[in-house]
User: Fold this.
Amino acid sequence: QVQLVQSGAEVKKPGASVKVSCKASGYTFTGYYIHWVRQAPGQGLEWMGWINSNSGGTNYAQNLQGRVTMTRDTSISTAYMELSRLRSDDTAVYYCARDLTGGVMDVWGQGTTVTVSS
Amino acid sequence: DIQMTQSPSSLSVSVGDRVTITCQASQGISNYLNWYQQKPGKAPQLLIYDASNLETGVPSRFSGSGSGTDFTFTISGLQPEDIATYYCQHYDYFRPLYSFGQGTRLEIK
Assistant:
């Protein structure tokens, strides 16, 4: 079945970087964009950006420009999201999601908890 | 940027109720509006896409309507498993940017 499986929880210190992976299975990885969405504790959903799994092209939310990098490895059907210069307010659950078409996020990963604490 | 205003932020409901949630865009967005359900500790799940299309496998008690700036999400006959938080989400085709509403949390009365 179609699924996205994310890497495990991370604990990082302020100023460090974190890289979260999202492995796709059950469909042609290069046929769909992958979005990254995060959710701070008790808060709503925040879109972070997307990567074109075929070309590697990216589009990032303006408030994360310069700190977020999205990449992919087509040989292992895996997308990555790296966030640098971490701050305490980056503490959140990070989700990857497949873009079915036109911004419709039809399949989601299970989420990765990233905790930023000194 | 287009702003999405979702209301109400929370709703106290009973099993069997008809539940209505609205999402208003600051400018016309055609039908680029999706609805998601999120249960505690779980990833969001797509319910409705392009304002009114039911995702495969989603029960028919869920429905969506609207176009332009005003959108409505309805649960016709709330079931216990529908207790969750619901989000609208807009896709700005020309930017391209994506934004979620603030969410509506359903609670049992």
About this structure: Chain B is about 0% helix and 55% strand.
